[in-house]
Design a protein that fits this description.
Largest sheet of chain A: 6 strands, mixed
Strand content of chain A: 25-35%
Radius of gyration of chain A: 18 Å
Number of strands of chain A: 10
Subcellular location (chain B): Cell membrane
Structural class of chain A: alpha/beta
Number of domains of chain A: 1
Distance between the termini of chain A: 38 Å
Helix content of chain A: 25-40%
Membrane topology (chain B): Multi-pass membrane protein
Shape of chain B: elongated
Keywords (chain B): Cell membrane, Membrane, Transmembrane, Transmembrane helix
Oligomer: heterodimer
CATH class of chain A: Alpha Beta
Largest interface: A-B, 32 and 28 residues
Strand content of chain B: 15-25%
Structural class of chain B: alpha+beta
CATH superfamily of chain A: P-loop containing nucleotide triphosphate hydrolases
Largest sheet of chain B: 10 strands, mixed
Distance between the termini of chain B: 35 Å
CATH topology of chain A: Rossmann fold
Number of helices of chain A: 9
GO molecular function, one term (chain B): transmembrane transporter activity
GO cellular component, one term (chain B): plasma membrane
Radius of gyration of chain B: 33 Å
CATH architecture of chain A: 3-Layer(aba) Sandwich
Shape of chain A: globular
Helix content of chain B: 40-55%
Amino acid sequence: MSLLELRDVTRTVIPPDQPALTILNGVDLTVEPGDRISIVGRSGSGKSTLLNLLGLLDMPTSGLLTFDDRPVKSYSGAARDRVRGAQIGFVFQQFNLLPGRTALENVAMPLLYAEGRSFWRRKQLAAEMLQEVGLGDRMESMPDRLSGGEQQRVAIARSLVRGPRLILADEPTGALDLDTGSSVMQLIDEVATRTGAALVTITHDPAIAARARDHFRLDRGVLTRADSDELAAASEAIS
Amino acid sequence: MKRAFTSLVGAVIEAWQELRVHRTRVLLSLIGVAVAVCSLTTVVALGGIVQQANQELSERQSGRPASLFVSAYSNQGTAIDSATMDATWAETLARYDITYGSRVMQTTQAVPFTTGVVDVQTQAVDQPYGEMHRVRLTEGEWFTADDAAGLAPALVVNQIFWERLGSPELRTHPTVELGAQGGKPGTTAVIVGVYPVASYETDPAMFMLADQLSAMTAARPSAAVQDPYGGGGGSTQYEMWVPPAISEQLMEVVKRDFTSALATPGGGTGDVQVDVYRQDYAQYGDDPFLVTKLVVGGIAVLVLLLGALGLVNIALVTVKQRVREIGIRRSFGATAGRVFFSVMMESVVATIAAGAAGVIASVLLVQNPWTMDLIGQGLVSDFPPFPAEAAVLGLVAATAVGALAGLLPALVAVRVKVIDAIRY
């Protein structure tokens, strides 16, 4: 049973007063629980659009997208939102922490959309998560008082606080220096391994991509399996 | 059910966090709402209080609804015997079981003060008059049965009268000499109560019981009531306070009874003209304060609309600035409904807080002594409390404005495209 599956997925947009633009074309991808997948591609290759589809933020124009073997089209809008909140965690390039909220409040934010004990114990769960990412002493800090690496760790804690089965990382180290980026990726890997979550990393950095077990390349909307050796060589060359 | 409850609590928490984070902006935007609600509540409350004060003043002057006045005069120009009038009046009250009836005679009595003798305006009334005209006292009490039975006439004087005597303690039974002239002693009267005066009044005045005035007049003719019209019964008015529902019917039967009772043996009923009429503010049946209410209501609605427009404007701009945050929340599981509700809640929570502040400000504004003096002119002793309906109206209006002002931004927030919002 696959966690997420795309079969011959196409995504087309129609810009105003322009002909239809195909951003993704015939994409096939299967994500199993515990997978480590990297998708590399240049700017404008359709990475973000693919991420939105994987995160159930967008719907394919054609083709089949399933979550837990159930077609995503069969979910209502609210049900899709709830599945996303409970099963998928996002890590963004720009961290996207909410300004004016402490690290603790940022991490507790996704739990505002949870139910039962998770909702009522949200502060405790958020505090535990921050401890786990090494920010137990920065819980009351505002985002603008945290370094880039710390902000990304808060973002990671936020994405994991509901125990998602799929973590989607969009250029997670794009705004960090090399060393910090490396430690952040290590943290994501560790937490994903411990929780058994699948990790899909979208990046243009071969070194980050090389950490995954399965590698894909997205080029002009077409997804193909990438050569691991080629990626490793590119990664070596950069480092 | 559980989901709905946690969603509600979550939305309130989100709204509160949002208000807390953007407190300066929120505070500035809500000042307009608070001012609008304060104005609305104040206008409504003042309207209510002014109406109450007007009603109280009207009742004090011309009686409570329904007050019937009886007057009679002879078509032959001869005087109608005051004793006959009084007897007929007493019979009428007894026949129709009317508890509240009073004779009212206007006269003056010479009263010696330290500054000299002053002719003091005097109303001679029966004991029920106090209740019929809402007479409220600042000192002592209105005439009682004991006062009526006393040998010395009892007086209820106004504040000016009392102060001219040096504001004596009423427990000491202060007295004045009525009608003392050229070394001759007058009638000793005891002051039993003091009533307040309007700020524009400057002269002393007093009430005394009609029977005691008659007794005083009998003993000392110079104290007689002057009748400028030369009619019977002096300048006595006969007044009764009856249920409005039966007032029309009573007017007819009282007129009939008086006409037949006062008819002369030779002249028949045609000799006497008896009038029974209402003079209280509600005599025409319509709401006499309707125009005031409409004007006040119109101003209040206008003020509130202006406040709401300002809030909608600011809320729309704010939502545009929050597109990214809304996108982030959606990516972490916030449904469209939840976003809609949260934005609405922000507006509603904020306006309720502003509304509460506005209502509190309004209460402080309306209930302070300076405002009370301005409205009451010292005459409204039973100042009505802050109208609860004005406070409720203020809070309900604030909530409604919050919901309306939040609706448009909430619709905008729901239409935010998550993908674009995160990249925003």
